[in-house]
């Protein structure tokens, strides 16, 4: 058995794919296999991928009809034979000691999941200076509850993102194969991460930036219909409340309920300011979502906050202008 299966979904990334695959060729770790999943690319990505596969006996290329990132990851998971599995997005790249560092940590701590910190780069690979904020974890073992608490942070906090995303992790394959990524949704990582964390007994954090996440221009959606698909993420947040409640963790459940209200606020703000969707297109959705949250979870708030959220439900633009912080 190889130590690590690397799953790389590929879809129309001819500009960046060589950087990604070169970084894997440069690994100072030998016991791995590469599973490239061509998800119906229409550019030269499959030909580039085949060049690398032809050079390595431990690389393979799967071709499938376009089904999205989740579908491609699921196809790779099904083929994985390694003790551990990791995902690398095809427009990103990894440090030369990425596999070695993560695998050594997994063996040392008998971990089910190893999470490495990451660094953001621009399209040309130049560092993007970002304020990461205060670190949530120290090098080494992370208490499961501490990892789960990261799911209560809202608004793109770096260390919470590090827990949620698929691409900076080494996961025991027998654990990963218990799950599949939800297909046909955006923010698929948000749906799977909590059940995955709950299934892991030992989680390890590596504080060094070993994964390089490329921020691509033009990645913001262009049409209103696609923008609305982002709101599926609120269903993931609500699922977390149910999972935590079923696990009997009252403190975490309380935090997740609060986070759910904040997520509703934040996503209204995003839809108005980033995706430029008119308020009247959003009203029915957010009116219903906030009233539902108030009826199910409103008692966690003091009266003034309940009144504020009622204002949101009735007039979200007023809330955004005068109350939202």
H-E order: EHEHEHEEHEEHHEHHEHHHHHH
Second-tier CATH architecture of the largest domain: Alpha-Beta Complex
Q: Report the biggest beta sheet as strand number plus sense, adding barrel if it closes.
A: 9 strands, mixed
Structural class label: alpha/beta
Shape: globular
Word description of this protein:
The protein is α/β, with parallel strands linked by helices and 325 residues long. The chain has 2 domains: 4-214, Spore Coat Polysaccharide Biosynthesis Protein SpsA, Chain A, CATH 3.90.550.10; 224-322, no CATH class. The protein is 47% helix and 17% strand. The chain has helices spanning 17-25, 45-55, 69-79, 98-109, 144-149, 158-164, 173-176, 188-199, 224-229, 233-246, 250-273, 279-297, 303-314, 316-322; strands at residues 4-10, 32-39, 59-64, 84-87, 93-94, 113-121, 140-142, 169-172, 203-214. Strands 1, 2, 3, 4, 5, 6, 7, 8 and 9 form a 9-stranded mixed sheet that branches. The mean pLDDT is 94.
